[in-house]
Amino acid sequence: MELKAVNPHLTDAELFTLAVPPVGEPEALPRHLSECFRCSRALQEWKLAVREIADDDMAVLDRRSAAEWESVENGTIAAMRRAAGHRRAPVMQWAASIAAGLMLGVLLLPAIRKSVSGGSGRPAAAATAAQDQKDDALLRDVARLSQGEDSGSWSTLAPEPGAPGGTEEEELL
Predict the structure, then answer these.
(1) Rounded Cα distance, 55 and 50, in Å
(2) pTM of the predicted model, to two decimals?
C-alpha cells in the first residue's frame, strides 16, 4: 500500500504572513499554493483585503487640508519638545552622580596616599632627598673627571651611596 503525504491547507496566520510579509519583501511561496486551488484563492482574497485597507488609509490622508497637516506637524513637534524636557532629568542625575564620585575621590586621595606610603610621608621624602643629593654629587664628580678637571680637591669618584667611609667633605655636599 502506498502512503500518500497529506498537505494540510494553509492557516489564516500563514496566509496573512504571505499577504503582508514581515520584512516588507516578498517571500518564496510554498509549493502547496501551486497544487491547491483553495489556498491559492484564499491568498488572493487576503492580498485584496490588505490593498483595500491600505487604500482606505490613503484616502483619509489624501482628504487632509494643508491646515490639518500643519496642525498635526505642530502637535508632533510639541510632543517631541515635551518628551525632551523629561529626558534632561536623567542626564542631570548622571551628571550629579559623576560629580559626587569625583568629589569623593578627591577627598579620599590624601588618605589613600598616606596609607600607601605607610604613615605621614615626611620620613620617606627626607630619605629620597638625601639619596638625590648623593646622586647629584656622583654626577658632578663624573662630569669633572670627564672634562679633565683633576686639579680640585677631588681625585677620585664619590663613593657608592650607603657605602661606609665617606669623607667629611663628601658628606657636606
Answers:
(1) 9
(2) 0.34
